[in-house]
Specification:
The complex is a heterodimer of chains A (111) and B (113). Chain A has 111 residues and is an all-beta fold. Helices cover 0% and strands 57% of the residues of chain A. Chain A has strands spanning 3-7, 10-14, 19-26, 32-38, 44-50, 56-58, 64-68, 73-78, 87-94, 99-101, 105-110. In chain A, strand 9 (87-94) and strand 10 form a beta hairpin. Chain B is mainly β. Chain B is 0% helix and 50% strand. In chain B, the strands form two sheets. In chain B, strands 2, 4, 5, 6, 9, 10 and 11 form a seven-stranded mixed beta sheet that branches. A four-stranded antiparallel beta sheet of chain B has the order 1-3-8-7, with no helix packed on it. Chain B starts with a strand and ends with a strand. Classes of the chains: A mainly beta (111), B mainly beta (113). The A-B interface holds A 9, 32, 34, 36, 41-46, 49, 51, 90, 94-104 and B 4, 31, 33, 40-45, 48, 50, 56, 58-59, 90, 92, 97-99, 101-107.
Chain lengths: 111, 113
Amino acid sequence: AQSVTQLGSHVSVSEGALVLLRCNYSSSVPPYLFWYVQYPNQGLQLLLKYTSAATLVKGINGFEAEFKKSETSFHLTKPSAHMSDAAEYFCAVSDIYKLSFGAGTTVTVRA
Amino acid sequence: NAGVTQTPKFRVLKTGQSMTLLCAQDMNHEYMYWYRQDPGMGLRLIHYSVGEGTTAKGEVPDGYNVSRLKKQNFLLGLESAAPSQTSVYFCASSLASGRMAQFFGPGTRLTVL
């Protein structure tokens, strides 16, 4: 079975600082990986997805993620945090039918 | 284009009561999903459907039933609600295949007393 593990349930960053959210995956086949964001009291929306076309994936709102097969990782980064980035972020891996989500990482941004 | 909509947004039930949550999508998507979200546990898949008339069990199906009589609608039923089913429920859809992006509804907050 495929699964993901998100390291750190809470991350606090200063405005303008680097945002780094960690995700490791387990998969017996080449994985399809996703990052979703959930703003307070809303549903999830797609940030970016990896489908083996390129190891560095660019998403919306300045986020990007790098697929590293040797480390089974798909970490999410943003060079400069903005107050509007405060949200919960979910890493997910898919099989042909469905997604399996990590437990989520809540990001708070300090002014 | 409304995307994915969920009805109702909030509901309070007493233990043993039943209810149905409605999910509708207007994107002509084949796949639809029901998740529950609980603090610290991410989203867990309850049931899913890969097309009209089909349903399948997800990770946590016990206590729930689903139906997909029309392509655009996916219903989630609780026959006899329990306090353990207090959660936020999200519906999602994707064009085809779990490997495509899923689009989520705004959620339904259910409390079972």
